[in-house]
What we know:
- 16% of the residues lie in helices and 41% in strands.
- The chain is α+β, with helices and mostly antiparallel strands.
- It is globular, with a radius of gyration of 18 Å.
Amino acid sequence: MGPRLLGRDPARAGCDGSEATARPATLLAALEDRVYLAVWLSVMLAACGRLPPPPSPSGPYAPESVETFGAMAARTVPPSAQLIRIRWRYDDGGQEVSGRGAVRLAPPDSLRLDISVPVVGRATLVLAGDSTWSQPGEVAQEVPQSRAILWALFGIIHRPTGGTRIEVGDAPDRRLYRLTAPDGSVTLLECRGDTLLGATELVAGKMVGRLVLTRDHAGAVVKADAADVAHRVRFVAEVEHREASDPFPSEIWRRP
């Protein structure tokens, strides 16, 4: 376990230093038992706290065309590459872990997330087009079903894959988009105009993930507060710095 993750080149990992606090409990034991992969993914995806429940539509959902939804989603994508520095905190009620990370966004379809994981070291996740890879590599096996939430963490609505049924409904002060994948899983997006406010994932009709975004007066995401309901953990990411960037080197998107 250790060499595969700790052996990464810090310059390529891209984390701007790190800080971590942890109480020695089940989380660290899990890391040593290689269950760290599930924990790492939980850090990426979410948490269980007292987030507000998803809103209910005031009327029935209506079909939405792929073209109309795609045009709206495109307006949530940054016009150029961005580098985002984040501070994150994970809490499952028994232990807390915190650290820093860096996110590289290359519109329209590439995202690289590098974080510092206490005790374990550094971890990387890359979404490039339809491909996904990570270090440690096993993490990517769990990612495709949650791609929409990963993009939503940064305020971006990712256009769904083919075969997804798209519906739209209204709720007080926001519009709801219900995306039903071919496997029956549902992603519910909450928007005000073209601004993403939150997202919910449901499997077999049960909520498994919840995300609420906080934005500043200019509309930029400053905080992502998420919940993995099944595992009762909470993840909070706060943006420390965001800047436009020149195009990133092509090699950062390639599997090592």
